[in-house]
């Protein structure tokens, strides 16, 4: 029997993307091959998300689509957060699925897939879990890659189901992360995006204890690594040493992804979040003192139980005051098993949608205005890809897949070019290469 082929569909966050890349690495080490399409694959895997209701619906729809599109002999395997949290429900509700493998069962994923495929995988010299830890990922198709530095979260935000899905924080040792960074750079990656559920708390669970600043010192020392970016920074965990490193290191994008979630202190307390409008103002002030040109992003929850029009106005005023470069607004989704789901004062979904639109409009105007201020500046731009014959890329100000892009008049994927901004179009910029 020739070695089976597989197809992986990935949903959800950057951390899930890393998991998919590692599962693909494990399957390839075991002798499986990537199929040209889902229809041709012997094994179809769907890596699901269960963060909020909308994500769960998308996961279920994707599983059903995969079932419809697969060839009749193919096996359908569901992995990821939905499998971890609702394994039994998936098995009973979608009997077409051949296997459901939650995150805790990844050490047995290869056995499960191989028994389904009726194929004896190539013997591995290490355990599947060890391999999943540091397997060399498939050669990235883009010049940036996410690097997951920890799993799980120790915080107890009242709206969030992630600690229940992904467990307590487990930081990876610095040496292991640096080794993976070297592999990725050797495979052509120019920008590494460090991710975790609570990145700024990295290393707190390790013995001896280390910090995110220690990790950053080690990662920036990786040869030929052009850019490092940090995502998911819990505001009250951001200390001066980290601010100085993000703003100070040449190869670290002076980009602060602050998950503020709201600006009203009363609501933040109900969310179980440490912080408040005054502390956020101070933090943003500290960052801008360290680097006046730093780029700031945040995510916000809209429609948390008890949220009033007044709270929304407070957030709107805060946005106008602090002038973030980017922000995303997420409708509150009651998550079973979370304290917030039991809170009174549910906000009508129509009102939530209206409020999110209102706040997004305020932010879109701010983003456009801050982008317009970039005209005339010269920026180092990493060319990500060619779209319709046009090179597109990002400077330190734009994170992959969530912020705007920069269109260029020249440049090849993976190249870092110096370009002068000649135009701004809402969230995107246009620039001409000067060197
Ligand atoms: S810090 Fe993030 S992942 Fe952790 S509980 Fe809060 S929202 Fe969830």
Gross morphology is: globular
Helix content: 25-40%
CATH fold assignment of the largest domain: pyruvate-formate lyase- activating enzyme
Oligomer: single chain
Main CATH class of the largest domain: Alpha Beta
Largest sheet: 5 strands, parallel
Distance between the termini: 54 Å
Bound molecules: iron/sulfur cluster
Number of strands: 18
Which structural class should the secondary elements be placed in?
alpha/beta
Q: List segments where confidence is low: pLDDT < 50 over at least 5 consecutive residues.
A: none
Keywords:
435 residues; alpha/beta; single chain; pyruvate-formate lyase- activating enzyme; binds iron/sulfur cluster; OB fold (Dihydrolipoamide Acetyltransferase, E2P); 5-stranded parallel sheet
Structural description of this entry:
The strands form 5 sheets. A 5-stranded parallel sheet has the order 2-1-3-4-5, sandwiched between helices. It has a 5-stranded mixed beta barrel with strand order 14-15-16-18-17. α7 runs parallel beside α8 and α12 runs parallel beside α13. It has helices at residues 14-29, 53-69, 81-93, 109-117, 128-134, 162-166, 174-186, 212-219, 240-248, 265-270, 277-290, 309-322, 349-372; strands at 5-10, 33-34, 43-48, 75-80, 99-101, 144-148, 150-151, 170-171, 191-195, 227-230, 255-261, 295-302, 326-331, 378-387, 390-394, 406-408, 416-425, 428-433. It folds into 3 domains: 5-129, Rossmann fold (3-Layer(aba) Sandwich), CATH 3.40.50; 133-372, tm_1862 like domain (pyruvate-formate lyase- activating enzyme, Alpha-Beta Horseshoe), CATH 3.80.30.20; 378-433, Beta Barrel (OB fold (Dihydrolipoamide Acetyltransferase, E2P)). It is α/β, with parallel strands linked by helices. It has 13 helices and 18 strands. The chain is globular, with a radius of gyration of 22 Å. It binds iron/sulfur cluster (SF4). Residues 153, 155, 157, 160, 162-163, 197-198, 234 line the site of iron/sulfur cluster. Iron/sulfur cluster (SF4) binds at residues 153, 155, 157, 160, 162-163, 197-198, 234.
